Amino acid sequence: MTLDRWIALILLGICIIYGYTAWFTMDASLAPFMRRNPIWPSSFPKVLSVLGILACLIILSGLEKGGEKIGEIDHRRLGDYFYGQALLLLGLMVLYALCLRPVGFLVSTSAFLIMGSFLLGERKWHIMIPVAFVATGSVWYLVQEVLGIFLRPLPAFMGV
Predict the structure, then answer these.
(1) Is the distance from CB of 89 to CB of 119 less than 8 angstroms?
(2) pLDDT tens string 1-58
(3) What domain of life does the native source organism fall in (predicted)?
(4) What does the alpha-carbon distance between residue 88 and residue 94 come to, in Å, rounded to a whole number?
């Protein structure tokens, strides 16, 4: 079995555990007035678990490749892959999570998107910066104003 199928098998186990938690344990602890709502706090995890299980089953069955053998991972050439880029991106994600509260959502998310896209090879600054700002502002507006969930937009020292 190839490496992508092993990873899909591991992710399938994680998705099944996540789905079990979403379908059975999360719903059991709901307050009685919440049980009448059409959307529960477990609705999104349920959808994610089902989609994850379907994606893993597609990879395990080999349907995503069609009839061609493309993209096979060569185990003899594992040193040729971009480990440094992947580790830097993971480090950037950790830094983003640590900076989210003190720096604020707008600044930290915009910086993460710009630095992450630069790290992945994008060099068109005139496209990268406006897209990061528009995406960050749109997500903040949807979460803050539409959903009504407070999300600190600016750094903590600014008092917002």
Answers:
(1) yes
(2) 678 888 999 999 999 999 998 888 887 777 777 777 777 777 888 999 999 999 999 9
(3) Bacteria
(4) 10
